[in-house]
Design brief:
Helix content is 42%, strand content 12%. It has 14 helices and 12 strands. The longest helix has 18 residues. The chain is globular.
Length: 393
């Protein structure tokens, strides 16, 4: 029999995945070219050529016994050293391999951190809109999610006044995601510094430790010359969860890492906990071969201009049609207001026009819907007529 806890999770299963599966069903009926699937953030851009070259070289030259075997729970020391060196150079940090844990993507990194730091009843704060799976990640370890609603400015920057009101002796962590899924908003340096000051001030007043978890799979996917600030530079109690899923178009390889700087409160114990959590959560270690691939590709990214062109086509045309939307500075999502205000009703109606989009309430933001434009340009262009029909009802 299904457990009580799992029944709740199944009943509230990911709307994103459900829409993705609906897309597969509709494509079988109408043909994939006649279904405009914007449901899942599954990159359509090919990995850089260097990734392929690295795979071939590693496969041909590495001793297969070691390449496919176990390693330290935290990952290969030389891989972690190369990643820490890259981060130090790019962001003027002072990390070593001891500050890096190789993980099963950013999702694995977040779960490893939460397993390490949460006690039952501890609170974890998120800002809407947020990646919906955070709910279950926190619940996995007996934590309680505290949701701060979107500010009224429409820029999707976190509401820091409400953050101050939400902090309590039970607050253990705050999760941020910039560039943001689903809004595409990039948190400004001023916002991050102000957030750090609020957390620092509360820590000193309360005598507690509050950890910031910065979820950063979209760090390299930015437009218009926008610079993404590094939150750990402003707040010492910061874990960074990173994935190569988007930067290298490798979502199915499940390769990422987390950083835990020496300055973290309780670093020695936490460092040991992260390594053990990586094992006992069932990951054991991150994929061995793609640790090696990542080390060879730390300084490259996919062709972001492909996403930027899709963004521009959608944003400009949907705005003309009457959709209200923030122009995203990063990631590969648009997050317009749902015409009529009911996001679920609008997304269901959009299926009649073979549009697959995700209701905003899946991200804690009812009244909006998400478009994942990491798809073919032809799909974007061919979908415009359907978006126009959808807004007209």
């Amino acid at each position: 029999m299904l457990s009580t806890a799992m029944k709740e999770i199944v009943a509230n299963s990911s709307a994103i995945r459900a829409m993705f599966e609906e897309g597969k069903r509709m494509a079988a009926i109408h043909g994939a070219e006649n279904v405009y699937d914007f449901s899942l953030g599954n990159p359509n851009v090919a990995p850089p050529e260097k990734v392929k070259q690295a795979i071939l070289e590693i496969t041909n030259n590495e001793n297969p016994v070691f390449l496919h075997g176990y390693m330290l729970n935290a990952g290969y020391p030389d891989v972690r050293k190369k990643i820490s060196g890259f981060l130090n150079k790019r962001y003027d940090l002072s990390l070593s391999e001891n500050n890096i844990v190789m993980t099963v993507g950013a999702a694995g990194a977040i779960n490893v951190v939460l397993k390490t730091i949460l006690n039952p009843g501890d609170e974890v704060i998120v800002f809407t809109p947020f990646f919906g799976e955070y709910r279950w990640y926190v619940k996995n370890f007996g934590g309680e999610l505290v949701i701060i609603p979107n500010n009224k400015s429409g820029d999707f920057q976190p509401d820091l006044a409400e953050l101050e009101n939400a902090l309590s002796p039970r607050t253990k962590a705050v999760i941020i995601n910039t560039p943001n899924n689903p809004s595409g908003a990039v948190y400004s340096e001023e916002t991050l510094k102000d957030l750090a000051a609020i957390l620092d001030g509360y820590q000193k007043k309360s005598g507690t430790s509050i950890y910031l978890i910065s979820d950063e799979p979209y760090r390299e996917i930015v437009y218009d010359g926008i610079q993404v600030s590094y939150p750990a530079k402003f707040y010492k109690n910061t874990f960074t969860a990173y994935s190569y899923s988007k930067a290298l178009s490798l979502p199915g390889e499940r390769i990422g890492y987390l950083t835990a700087p020496d300055e973290l409160d309780g670093f020695e114990e936490i460092s040991q906990g992260l390594s053990v959590a990586n094992r006992i959560l069932g990951f054991v270690n991150s994929p061995s071969m793609f640790q090696r691939v990542a080390a060879e590709c730390v300084d490259i990214t996919v062709d972001v201009s492909i996403y930027e062109e899709n963004r521009n086509i959608l944003y400009e045309n949907l705005s003309k049609m009457g959709y209200e939307c923030l122009k995203p500075g990063g990631a590969f999502y648009l997050f317009p207001k749902a015409p009529g205000g009911d996001d679920v009703a609008f997304c269901n109606a959009a299926k009649e026009h073979r549009l697959l989009i995700v209701p905003g309430r899946a991200f804690g933001a009812p009244g909006y819907f998400r478009i994942a434009y990491c798809t073919k340009k032809e799909t974007v262009q061919n979908s415009l007529n359907s978006f126009e029909k959808a807004i007209k009802g």
